[in-house]
Amino acid sequence: MKTQVGIIGSGPSGLLLSQLLDLQGIESVILERQSREHVMGRIRAGVIEQGTADLLRTAQVHARMDREGQPHDGVNIAFNGERYRIDFKGLTGSAVMVYGQTEITRDLFEARDALGGTIIDEAEDVRPHGIDTDSPYLTYRKHGEAHRIDCDFIAGCDGFHGVSRQSIPADVLHTYEKVYPFGWLGVLSQTPPVADELIYAHHARGFALCSMRSATLSRYYVQCPVDEDLADWPDDRFWDELRRRLPDDAAEALVTGPSIEKSIAPLRSFVAEPMRFGRLFLAGDAAHIVPPTGAKGLNLAASDIYYLSRALTAFYKDGQQALLDAYSETCLRRVWKAERFSWWMTTLLHQFPENGAFGARVQLAELDYLVNSKAAMTALAENYIGLPY
Ligand code: FAD
Ligand code: DHB
């Protein structure tokens, strides 16, 4: 088989790239290790920046998002039993939208199907070859048969555990990593959200987050030890723990119910540089991971795809190489700012016993400063709604 851009991974990065390229008349094939059901069943991000929403509109997958997505003009920060609002709209003129990654993924699959896009799922042993030549290709196996796809470029959209990043020679690749000593225990429940807007709660028992997917679907998280066993967290224990970490009014308003999904996610900051080697371009989680506190993971994947689709379009339409050459540097400038913000939000809101009593008091002073300073709130708002592309 032959195509122009071979894409590894059918997460949001790979699907969005394929869709944007198709609308520019550029062919691609996606190779995905898992089944479509598996990819669509993953519960992940929930908050999207204006820039991501605009890119989904460019990709013509916006109809349901504009109908069902909920614009959020601010968030709440809770600590010391009080709740404070940060007014994104008032401070920056912009806002975010609550629309789940699960829905975005479904919309993208439907759009790819409608345009006749090729997505080969359950592809085993996918490997990129010849990435430092002008004729790269992909190999994979399906139903025991070996296949090869020749292409002009390969997009590594295969997430943190993918094969793409590992294909870049070790002496070229630099990685930067911070692993946090805790995780997030998340629950999805068919219950009305506790508040109209998200609540990020600092508490001596650990961080908690109240989020949502719709008027009837809630998403909650609590900070937990990273090696925690899910079996030790029946629903009742989760709800009790969440309630204890929320301000009284929220704890009283909390509606509980059976969990539909429950999982533990580790927290990590990670960046791989460069994001391009020869004809291989990394995008999204394949190149970088943020701790989820700033809701940046999916949004960074979208900005990478914006830069990559623009660069590939300039190459195919005008024979222009400059944007491809600038891809890694352009992405990384935005990536590092989102890494900094996600690390800062994580540091501000979680418990770090290793920082001692002094660290705990400094953290409370920073929270107090944040909610009483327009400058500090604006800095949070500007980053949360998303830095410009
Ligand atoms: P992915 O979504 O990881 O997609 C990569 C795809 O590549 C997958 O479908 C995978 O099956 C496929 N693949 C991997 N290896 C291969 C291979 N060798 N061959 C073929 N295919 C392969 N972000 C937030 O903002 N908020 C959140 O609450 C949040 N929660 C998260 C929870 C978890 C458990 C995880 C893992 C991530 C979470 N994120 C969250 C981050 C966000 O979901 C990601 O940033 C986003 O999914 C990145 O999209 P992607 O397409 O780059 O990667
Ligand atoms: C959600 C996840 C986040 O990491 C975040 O910061 C906000 C919301 C969510 O899953 O809804």
Descriptive notes:
By secondary structure, the protein is an alpha+beta fold. It is built from twelve helices and 20 strands. It has helices at 12-23, 36-41, 50-58, 63-68, 88-92, 101-114, 235-245, 248-253, 297-318, 322-349, 356-372, 374-384; strands spanning 5-8, 28-31, 47-49, 70-72, 74-79, 82-87, 96-98, 118-120, 124-129, 137-142, 145-150, 153-156, 174-189, 199-201, 208-214, 217-225, 259-273, 276-277, 280-282, 288-289. The strands form four sheets. Strands 6-5-14-15-16-13-17-20 form an eight-stranded mixed β-sheet. Strand 1 (5-8), helix 1 (12-23) and strand 2 (28-31) form a beta-alpha-beta unit. Helix 1 (12-23) packs parallel to helix 6, helix 9 (297-318) runs antiparallel to helix 10 and helix 11 crosses helix 12. The two termini are 35 Å apart. The structure holds flavin-adenine dinucleotide and 3,4-dihydroxybenzoic acid. The site of 3,4-dihydroxybenzoic acid has 9 residues, from loops.
Topology:
Blueprint: E1 5-8, H1 12-23, E2 28-31, H2 36-41, E3 47-49, H3 50-58, H4 63-68, E4 70-72, E5 74-79, E6 82-87, H5 88-92, E7 96-98, H6 101-114, E8 118-120, E9 124-129, E10 137-142, E11 145-150, E12 153-156, E13 174-189, E14 199-201, E15 208-214, E16 217-225, H7 235-245, H8 248-253, E17 259-273, E18 276-277, E19 280-282, E20 288-289, H9 297-318, H10 322-349, H11 356-372, H12 374-384
Parallel strand pairs: 1-2, 1-12, 2-8, 5-14, 12-19
Antiparallel strand pairs: 3-7, 4-7, 5-6, 9-10, 10-11, 13-16, 13-17, 14-15, 15-16, 17-20, 18-19
